[in-house]
């Protein structure tokens, strides 16, 4: 399964000092406030704001872990995902005067976390680029025009890899693999509307609500 391969790959990148700092922070003290109003956010900022569970403009590792479980990631994958995301983006997005160890993600600076080998559906400032999103389905949706199979998602990821930037290859694999695993339908398709919702975070809200409803119905 995709999620298992990606989970193993993610685990291989975990460095003990980073993981130790992460979980110290997850269960440690607080941080300053950095409010960013939703109406002023770029698509990229909206994409990550779902994980800002207390809506203070700063995403802690524990919030990413909580949000990842809320959308359906298993605990092990959510832990690995939070570790990698915050190790990569915390230092980049944190202002100089932010509390150490700079593992929290500051939404206002999220554009600093842009990485290579992506689809191009975010511009350099984190704004959504509709034509680039449409190209995903024009180029890769071979089975049906409004959905992607797992193999088509893999094909898209490979097609977008920058051969001069191998350090950027793992991010899209983990991100798209994780979302495909929790958002694809019973026939194995990631629908176009759900893929679009990745870019502004709306699919995360949908997945959390769906999961909460399923749990409630099972009681």
From TrEMBL:
Family: Belongs to the caleosin family.
Organism for this UniProt entry: Aegilops tauschii subsp. strangulata (Goatgrass)
Top-level taxonomic group: Eukaryota
InterPro entries: Caleosin-related
Protein name as annotated: EF-hand domain-containing protein
Species lineage: Eukaryota, Viridiplantae, Streptophyta, Embryophyta, Tracheophyta
Single GO term (MF): calcium ion binding
